[in-house]
């Protein structure tokens, strides 16, 4: 099977133009089929403030009202996405900037209202991704660059978690390619001690994950990422790698950098 | 050869949500391969005012400075483009929202500075469009929805004329498909008398165009559209139709509505 790299970057890379340039330079050199999934970054909040759109959060997560979905559609789907595309095209990497709504490549549904109305937030329908359409793009030399937006099949755009999109794509394409899913974040990997940047845990499997959780050793912010990673592994993705953008792409031997997630 | 419809809509449709919904309903029903090219509309100016970005014009044409290119990248490439995609997807039309930078589908170069520095404005390199990449998308069921942006091969996004993009795509694909290029605008067609909305000229060929220009009968604003149309015809496009969005798609027999441009 052909290799496919699915690489997700978040705000820490997007918000820093030097870090982004450096990352994209590395990304452009990755051989073969690849997909870049990007988050939003703080720029949406900054532009929202200029437009008088107040950011509302519950438990640190944004509520996406009518104004906010227009804001993130502009910023994630337009500004961030197309700037990445222009940079990659300048590096002769054939980036195609899209979002999950385009080609219905990441089907989703509006999150049901329970205690909290999250507004225009989409949950990925993980078992409905059209792997044939993805293959058309990948097998013809396009490098999809994906913004974290989907649609609700009722003419609305929705804000959608980029980590989840990346893992859903990885799972859907794992029957067609030898998929390596890479989450880039601000740390060198999953840390044994949050205070010590060099305490990277080299490998985590299901058993050690259960133990780490039981001991409450892990930083809470990493748990959704790890849950996404194990969901992907359970569903056929070969490797998930978590770590800092600087390290992961330059050195693609997973044993030497970041945290490798395996069954 | 298979038919390909390339349909361009401008601000008069985009700025009016009812007109846009009606147009997209018609567009979704057009059988077979199709591309939608959209302009920007007044919404960029409105959001620009909220952000304190002053619109600068020379001879009615926008100067695209650093702030303005970010603005139109957000609004055209994000907000307008993705809202159209979500509406078309709700109608089961497999829209893929992109711009000319994506996949380098519309190569362009920065307009040289002469008397006027237009800023981040791209001129289409008409003879360099990758028709093979377009065919991959069209022949696999994607319906490209194109925002009027390109890139300069040096990591910058550029504002680009949507009429010109539509005609360059039409020309590039005229060897692979039987192309009908359709310009939707606010009038029912090219008018013999600007005051009379019903004075539509049914057909214009090169000879009659030369005569109409000599007699200075035509509204100046229509001349660039007609020049684009004749450039397309000269380069192999079969038909160019100019008229109102309401009429053109519902009735695809060109003799009964709008203005048909022929050699």
Shape category of chain A: globular
Structural class of chain A: alpha/beta
Corresponding CATH superfamily of chain A: Acetylglutamate kinase-like
Quaternary form: homodimer
What proportion strand of chain A?
Answer: 15-25%
Mean pLDDT of chain A, nearest integer? 92
The count of β-strands of chain A is 14
**Portion in helices of chain A:** 25-40%
Give the number of helices of chain A. 9
Amino- and carboxy-terminal Cα gap of chain A: 20 Å
* Proper CATH architecture of chain A: 3-Layer(aba) Sandwich
- Identify the strand order in the major beta sheet of chain A: 5-8-2-1-11-13-14-12
Order of helices and strands of chain A: EHHEHEEHEEEHEEEHEEHHEHE
CATH class of chain A: Alpha Beta
Catalytic activity (chains A, B): N-acetyl-L-glutamate + ATP = N-acetyl-L-glutamyl 5-phosphate + ADP
Site (Transition state stabilizer) (chains A, B): 8, 225
Main location (chains A, B): cytoplasm
Subcellular location (chains A, B): Cytoplasm
Structure notes:
The structure is a homodimer of 263-residue chains. Chain A is of the alpha/beta class. Helix content of chain A is 37%, strand content 23%. Chain A is built from 9 helices and 14 strands. The first copy, chain A, has helices at residues 11-14, 17-29, 43-50, 66-90, 131-139, 162-173, 206-214, 223-234, 245-248; strands at 3-9, 33-38, 56-58, 61-63, 95-99, 108-110, 122-124, 143-147, 149-151, 157-159, 178-185, 203-204, 239-244, 259-261. An 8-stranded mixed sheet of chain A has the order 5-8-2-1-11-13-14-12, sandwiched between helices. In chain A, strands 3-4 form a two-stranded antiparallel ribbon. A two-stranded antiparallel ribbon of chain A has the order 6-7. The longest helix of chain A is centred in the first third of the chain and has 25 residues, at 66-90. The mean pLDDT of chain A is 92. Chains A and B meet through helix 4 and strand 5 of A and helix 4 and strand 5 of B.
């Amino acid at each position: 099977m052909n290799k496919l790299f699915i690489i997700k970057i978040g705000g820490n890379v997007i918000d820093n133009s030097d870090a982004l340039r450096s990352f994209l330079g590395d990304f452009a050199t990755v051989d073969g089929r690849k997909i870049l999934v990007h988050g939003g970054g703080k720029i949406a909040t900054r532009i929202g403030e200029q437009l008088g759109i107040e950011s509302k959060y519950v438990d640190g997560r944004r509520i996406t009202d009518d104004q906010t979905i227009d804001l993130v559609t502009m910023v994630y789907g337009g500004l961030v996405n197309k700037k990445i595309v222009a940079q990659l095209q300048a590096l002769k990497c054939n980036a195609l900037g899209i979002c999950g709504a385009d080609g219905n490549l990441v089907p989703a549904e509006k999150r049901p209202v329970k205690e909290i109305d999250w507004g225009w937030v989409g949950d990925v329908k993980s078992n409905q991704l059209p792997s044939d359409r993805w293959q058309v793009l990948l097998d013809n030399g396009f490098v999809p660059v994906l913004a974290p937006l989907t649609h609700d099949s009722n003419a609305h755009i929705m804000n959608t978690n980029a980590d989840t999109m990346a893992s859903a794509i990885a799972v859907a394409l794992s029957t067609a390619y030898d998929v390596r899913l890479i989450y880039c974040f601000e740390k060198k990997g999953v840390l044994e001690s949050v205070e010590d940047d060099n305490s990277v845990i080299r490998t985590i499997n299901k058993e050690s994950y259960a133990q780490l959780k039981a001991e409450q050793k892990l930083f809470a912010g990493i748990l959704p990422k790890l849950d996404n990673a194990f969901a992907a592994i359970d569903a056929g993705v070969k490797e998930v790698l978590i770590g800092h953008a600087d390290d992961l792409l330059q050195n693609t031997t997973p044993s030497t950098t970041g945290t490798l997630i395996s069954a």
